[in-house]
Design goal:
With 490 residues, the chain is α+β, with helices and mostly antiparallel strands. It contains 23 helices and eleven strands. Strand 2 and strand 3 form a beta hairpin. Helix 7 crosses helix 8 and helix 8 packs across helix 11. The N and C termini lie far apart (59 Å).
């Protein structure tokens, strides 16, 4: 084990030196009983070793003998828990080492290893910035932030098939550097969906589900970081049209004809909300006359900027937290059509999709009966039809009435959005860009380079923007709609 480095890592993450020595001593006891501890990170058996230290209160009351072979003086439950806690910290430390490109002691180093990542590791875009963002915006410790980075870099160790998207992660860094943001985010979205499918599959055992959950959490955190960090964030239209110019990249997720998901996919409410919050953050809109805009991507960036900069100055500010809660409340109100009526998302426990049949059902909280999900068509007033989807990404959010109409009818009640719209028009003219939602990301990129404009013109709008966002939410009803029909409606 890397005794000295581990000790320094513990102290660097806030532990007192005496406590750190105790933790190191416990890991050394584990290695005495289970030699060559670090090699277990290379062959993937470290999780199996950790499972050996599982010992419950029930085991204690029934006087069962612990699975591990370390002799404990005193209470077996307390002693085993202390060993497991120490090993867990060592695993977190080793993940942080792997994320930083440190080669394990037992690994052979070749000339090519000195200039390229270890086989199986994924290149990440802005790794250092991602770590810093998790600490400033997510309130994470350095160790936790390193663990998230490690999960992403070593994702290919867990999913290896081409259709699982493991190799697509290698492309994302290059795509972002080249400015192909929409393709990169779409790929990340699809990789996250594939990891979710593995985690939700009935064929995945419980220990693997925990691993997949860690990988998925890291992916989601990385997507949130990119949404905040990228100077040019694509809107919903660009994301929906990615397949038109990135078809070669997208087809790798289709798999071959024998690689179909068996059974059903059951999405818990947490997954559903996460998906639709991301959708809402990309839905930039314009009024019917194109005189006032709803640049939600830019608003997200502004609120995040406000809270982050205040935190750097030790000033209390909850603008980003407020907006996140606003999105959560908005998602809770989304209506889902069934044969038995409409239900808000807050009342739903799960959405169940059969990929082979394309059918979509839901399960309500406190209810055992499934309800078939219906969708409106592209023509308002037409009868709803059964929804068809193979995965959660095939389901969209539909504004009723359309946001363009709501903006037009509330023009006088939206002074802050009017100011933002005028600033957008000004920058679009300077950069010779067409005034359309898909260009809002490019305009935002230019705006946020000018800190004087952001600090003096945009930040003062935030209090009014909060009120105006509430006005717009009160004027719109959100419903789930089949993606293929929603795209035709647009």
């Amino acid at each position: 084990m890397k005794e000295t480095d581990f000790f320094n890592w513990l102290v660097g993450n806030g532990q007192q030196e005496n406590s750190a020595r105790t933790v190191v001593s416990r890991v050394k006891r584990i290695e005495e009983a289970y030699p060559e501890l670090d090699s277990r990170f290379e062959d993937g058996s470290i999780q199996m070793l950790l499972n050996v230290f599982t010992y419950t209160k029930s085991d204690e009351s029934n006087k069962r003998i612990p699975l591990h072979k370390i002799e404990i003086d005193g209470n077996p439950y307390t002693g085993t828990q202390s060993l497991k806690n120490a090993l867990t910290q060592y695993i977190e430390f080793m993940h942080s080492e792997m994320a930083d490109g440190v080669v394990p002691n037992n690994a052979e180093t070749t000339e090519s290893d000195k200039t390229t990542p270890n086989i199986g590791d994924v290149m990440l875009y802005k790794t250092a910035d991602f770590r810093e963002w998790m600490r400033w915006c997510g309130g994470m410790t350095q160790g936790s932030a390193n663990s998230y980075v490690s999960y992403l870099k070593t994702l290919r160790h867990k999913v290896t098939r081409k259709s699982d998207g493991a190799y697509a992660l290698d492309l994302i860094s290059d795509l972002l550097k080249e400015g192909n943001t929409a393709v990169a985010l779409k790929l990340l979205d699809k990789v996250e969906e594939k990891v979710s499918e593995h985690m939700l599959s009935s064929e995945t055992d419980e220990s693997e589900k925990k691993d997949f959950n860690n990988y998925r959490s890291a992916l989601r955190k990385y997507i949130l970081f990119l949404q905040d960090d990228l100077e040019e964030l694509p809107d919903e239209e660009e994301l929906n049209n990615v397949e038109a110019f990135g078809v070669d990249l997208m087809t790798q997720f289709d798999g071959d004809s024998n690689d179909k998901t068996s059974g059903t996919l059951t999405y818990p409410i947490s997954d559903i909300k996460q998906n639709f919050i991301f959708r809402l953050k990309t839905q930039n809109r314009m009024s019917n006359q194109k005189d006032i805009f709803y640049p939600i991507g830019m608003i997200c960036k502004l609120f995040n900027y406000s809270q982050r900069e205040a935190k750097r100055k030790d000033i209390y500010n909850n603008d980003a937290d407020w907006l996140n809660e606003w999105f959560k409340d908005y998602v809770d109100s989304i209506l889902v059509i069934t044969a038995d009526g409409e239900y808000p998302l807050s009342k739903i426990k799960e959405i169940i999709i059969n990929p082979n049949e394309g059918s979509v059902n839901l399960l309500l909280e406190g209810c055992c009966d499934e309800h078939k999900v219906f969708t409106e068509t592209m023509h308002e007033g037409d009868a709803s039809i059964p929804m068809q989807a193979k995965r959660l990404q095939d389901i969209h959010i539909d504004h009723t009435p359309l946001m363009a109409s709501v903006l037009s009818t509330n023009l006088a009640n939206l002074p802050a959005l009017n100011v933002m719209s005028e600033i957008i028009k000004k920058y679009a003219k300077q950069k010779q860009l067409d005034i359309k939602p898909s260009n809002f990301g490019k305009i935002s990129k230019q705006l946020f380079k000018n800190t004087e404009v952001v600090n003096e013109q945009l930040l003062p709008l935030i209090p009014k923007l909060k009120n105006e966002l509430d006005i717009l939410r009160g004027e719109c009803v959100l419903k789930l709609m089949q993606a293929s029909l929603n795209l035709k409606k647009k």
